[in-house]
Amino acid sequence: MVAISAFFDCFVDKELEEKISGRGLIIRLWCWASFEKEDGWTLPYPALIDTGAHTSMIPKRIWSILPVNKLAEHYTRV
């Protein structure tokens, strides 16, 4: 189980604004996510929400303390 509290971060990308006047506003959806452990909840972690992603990436330092079942070994590369 996960507890999430979401918020928006808005800022102007100066480089993009110089290229396309009036189009440099960047809006990102962030959240604080806490994960349920066997003995309670983790502290909240900041996370960027990518609504178009088909896969969520959780750092090993977080999921290694959670009661999860590993389904397969897989590595993501750029």
Quick structural gist:
The protein has 78 residues and is mainly beta.
Key features of this structure:
78 residues, mainly beta, 4-stranded antiparallel β-sheet, 2 helices, 4 strands, 13% helix, elongated
Architecture overview:
- The protein has one domain.
- Helix content is 13%, strand content 38%.
- It has helices at 14-19, 60-63; strands spanning 2-12, 25-37, 40-41, 45-48.
- With 78 residues, it is mainly beta.
- Strands 1, 2, 3 and 4 form a four-stranded antiparallel beta sheet that branches.
Spans of 5+ residues with little confidence (pLDDT < 50)? none
Shape: elongated
Calculate the terminal CA-CA distance, rounded to whole Å. 29 Å
The average pLDDT score comes to 85
Count of beta strands: 4
User: Secondary-structure element order, as H and E?
Assistant: EHEEEH
Protein structure class: mainly beta
Helix content: 10-25%
Strand content: 35-45%
**Number of alpha- plus pi-helical segments:** 2
Number of domains: 1
Largest sheet: 4 strands, antiparallel
Global Rg: 17 Å
